[in-house]
């Protein structure tokens, strides 16, 4: 499933390295880990034949308004609501109807959803708050979608306006796009939310 997007992390590598160099100049609380920046999301999009893959990564702050583990009922309700919105990608990504795209797969991952930390975080998530804070002070939400499009030639644009409307704390999205016309990097904002394949 991740086959098409394998090339993308290398494209983003210089960005991450630049941020890592910065990190030591700030106190740890405000240092940016990787490209984690409030208000900024990242989207990898790849169209290959009839398969469209979209991978959205965002600081939890942009989507739910906080980054800590949901402990109160209100926080849990907010996380559940956001998860439900992310489970309807056709509502978030305004794909042209003529393209006839149907969801082939959806994967959502985030410490806030109670997902286990990755293998390199082998301690128990609740075991030690101080250690936990070090690993999860920047909670990310990752959503990976796969679509099968009957008429991929009709996929001329990707409109992200609904993402900005649904999650108003998102100010811009950095997009890496691979399509029939090659690879491009674009930054979209709520005022200019559409991009061309």
Task: Give me some keywords for this one.
197 residues; alpha+beta; 6-stranded mixed β-sheet; two-stranded antiparallel ribbon; 8 strands; ZrgA-like
Question: Can you walk me through this structure?
Answer:
This protein has 197 residues and is of the alpha+beta class. The chain contains six helices and eight strands. The strands form two sheets. Strands 3-4-2-1-6-7 form a six-stranded mixed beta sheet. A two-stranded antiparallel ribbon has the order 5-8. The two termini are 21 Å apart.
In brief:
With 197 residues, the protein is an alpha+beta fold. The chain has one domain.
Global mean pLDDT: 80
- The largest beta-sheet arranges its strands as 3-4-2-1-6-7
The largest sheet, given as strand count, sense and whether it forms a barrel, is:
6 strands, mixed
Strand content: 25-35%
**Series of H and E elements:** HEEHHHEHEEHEEE
Model regions low in confidence, pLDDT < 50 over at least 5 residues: 6-34, 119-136
Give the proportion of residues in helices: 25-40%
Q: What Rg, in angstroms, do the CA atoms define? A: 17 Å
Strand element count: 8
Provide a count of the helices.
6
Give the tally of structural domains.
1
Shape designation: globular
Head-to-tail CA distance between termini: 21 Å
In terms of structural class, how would the helical and strand content be classed? alpha+beta
Biased composition (Basic and acidic residues): 128-139
Pfam family, one: ZrgA
Signal peptide: 1-20
Keywords: Signal
């Amino acid at each position: 499933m991740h086959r098409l997007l394998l090339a993308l992390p290398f494209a983003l590598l210089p960005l991450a390295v630049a941020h890592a160099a910065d990190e030591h100049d700030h106190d740890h609380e405000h240092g940016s880990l990787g490209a984690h920046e409030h208000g900024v999301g990242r989207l990898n999009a790849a169209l290959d034949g009839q398969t469209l893959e979209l991978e959205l990564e965002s600081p939890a702050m942009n989507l739910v308004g906080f980054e800590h583990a949901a402990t109160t009922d209100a926080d849990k309700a907010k996380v559940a609501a956001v998860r439900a919105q992310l489970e309807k990608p056709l509502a978030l990504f305004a794909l042209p109807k003529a393209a006839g795209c149907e969801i082939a797969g959806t994967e959502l991952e985030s410490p806030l959803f109670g997902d286990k930390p990755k293998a390199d975080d082998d301690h128990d998530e609740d075991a030690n708050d101080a250690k936990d804070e070090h690993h999860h002070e920047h909670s990310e939400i990752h959503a990976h979608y796969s679509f099968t499009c009957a008429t991929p030639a009709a996929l001329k644009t990707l409109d992200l306006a609904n993402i900005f409307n649904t999650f108003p704390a998102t100010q811009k999205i950095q997009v890496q796009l691979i399509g029939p016309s090659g690879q491009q990097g674009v930054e979209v904002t709520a005022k200019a939310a559409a991009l061309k394949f």
